[in-house]
Amino acid sequence: MRATPETKLIGMMDAPPDKSITIRALLLAAVAEATSTIERPLRSGDTDAVLVAVRMLGARVDEGEGYLRIVGKELTSPRTPVDLGNSGTGLRLLTGICAAREGLEVTLTGDDSLTRRPLDRVVEPLRTMGAEIAYLDREGCAPIRIRGKKLKGIRYELPIPSAQVKSALLLAGLSAEGKTEVIEHTATRDHTERMLPRFGVELKVAEGGGVRSVGVEGPVKLTHTQLRIPGDYSSAFLPLAMSLCLAGSDIRVGKLGLNATRLRTVPLLAHAGARWQLEMAGYHGHEPVGVVFSAHSPLSRVEVDAADVPSVIDELPLLALLATQAEDGGEIRGAGELRVKESDRLENSRAMLCAFGAQVSLDADAALRMEGKQKLSPVQVDAGGDHRMAMLALGCALLAGVRGGAEAGGVRTMSESEIIGWESADISWPGLVNDVSPLLAGGMMEEA
Question: Phi and psi for 18 in degrees, rounded to 5?
Fold first, then answer.
């Protein structure tokens, strides 16, 4: 990818379909009775890997223009390992589903990045429920071999906030005997809880005193349904964030999921001076959708506390970039969870921002500190196989302030940035260039 600095973003675009919701819909439809229809699913590297997985496990998938029809059935044991590619959501949720299917035998694996990410936070509570799961290579990581058993429901308090762990246990609980209850002290994404009632599952949700519990009484059969996937806020945050920084910008992003558990960046940045406007337009299933309007807004200081991190985990790299452009910089505290994503996003965010010329420090307590009003310069960087790092690099490139090349101390500076490994963006947003390019008023993005 080659990109030149941008003058402003103007116009409207529709958000790409939500990756997290698409993956959940694919997995639930695969184990539901009869035929479910998923409208406007995201087709990306991660979701296509999950689609291959459900086919290998016996579900029939019919593909149409803008929809998928999935005929669910009892899962069958595949003859070869199921490769989830880079999809951590797919791996963790499918581990919960498969562990509770009596008689099923399956090996789950993934790419180099996925097989380095911690899986024990899912496996250990599943073993408490009676699951038989073996690590085949490195302890605590995929590949794993699962022999499906009849599980028993448990009450489990999440030691680390994680929507994926919560979802994996609830999905296992659908086939377990008795009640499975997950307790969280920090709210995480609730897409699974919103989607399960569409498949005929009755959940018991209780909140109070800073604690939230979600329970399901098993075993329960899932009925077929029809779902429409809302737009992905984490992807749309890229143009929204850039519009805040570029003078004269004024954009509208439609078909956007407005789930409250995904919108923590809105009040955080509004406190820093961001001009946001959200308009509800209705619901896609149980998910609220609408439009977000964003315009250029000089930011004061970007602050993210540890308690905010689970709700903005995918947006943290771009929040760090915004802090470099804010008047008084910013700080992101307690972001250690970024170290166990597709890459060490904590260190890689620091390194990426520094490569473009920003002053950023990272301390032993997983806090990023950004100096404000930083001038960025075009450079060549490598996304390192991480789609969020590719998006961060693009954001930096659009804000980099050198045009046309210039002589500086006898060294000719770059007039455009080059992002090596841009194809990793296809994991979550394969149409990014086509979707965002119409908003550009002066810059350029070109895939090589």
Answer: -75, 130
User: Average pLDDT, stretch 204-226?
Assistant: 94
State whether CATH 3.65.10.10 applies to domain 2-17+230-446.
Answer: yes
Residue keyed to tokens 């945050």? 237
Instruction: Count helices and strands (H / E) in the chain.
Output: 12, 26
Extract the tokens encoding 97.
Answer: 């589903």
**Rounded Cα–Cα distance for residues 275 and 273 (Å):** 6
Residue 58: both structure tokens together: 């016996």
Enter the DSSP assignment of 76.
-
Q: Which amino acid is at 18?
A: D
β strands within 246-314, DSSP E? 250-257, 275-284, 287-295, 302-304
Biggest CA pair distance of the chain: 73
Helix (H, G, I), strand (E, B) or coil at 401: coil
Question: What is the reported pLDDT for 210?
Answer: 87
Distance (Å, rounded) from C-alpha 342 to C-alpha 345? 8
Specify the CATH number of the domain 19-228: 3.65.10.10
Instruction: Kindly report, residue by residue over 238-260, the tens digit of the pLDDT.
Output: 999 999 999 999 999 999 999 99
Which one of 46, 314, 386, 435 is the catalytic residue? 314
Specify whether the CB–CB gap between 2 and 417 falls below 8 A: yes
Rg (CA), the chain: 22
- Residue 234 CB partners (closer than 8 Å, separation 6+): 19, 262, 314, 315, 428
Q: Report CA torsion sign: 292, 298, 300, 304.
A: positive
| Ranges of CATH 3.65.10.10 domains, the chain | 2-17+230-446, 19-228
pLDDT surpasses 80 at 288: yes
DSSP string, 107-133: EEE--TTGGGS--HHHHHHHHHTT-EE
CA distance 146 to 104: 8
Cβ partners under 8 Å of residue 415, min gap 6 = 4, 378, 402, 403, 404, 405, 406
With a CB cutoff of 8 Å and minimum separation 6, the contacts of 165 are: 92, 121, 122, 125, 158
What is the pLDDT, as a whole number, of residue 414?
A: 62
Residue of 448, 401, 384, 421 whose CA lies nearest to 116: 384
221-225 mean pLDDT: 95
**pLDDT tens digits along 160-178:** 999 999 999 999 999 999 9
The answer to whether residue 314 is catalytic is: yes
Contacts of 25 (CB under 8 A, 6+ apart): 36, 38, 41, 195, 227, 229
Nearest to 21 by CA among 230, 311, 161: 230
Whole-number pLDDT of residue 413:
54
CB 210 within 8 A of CB 164: no
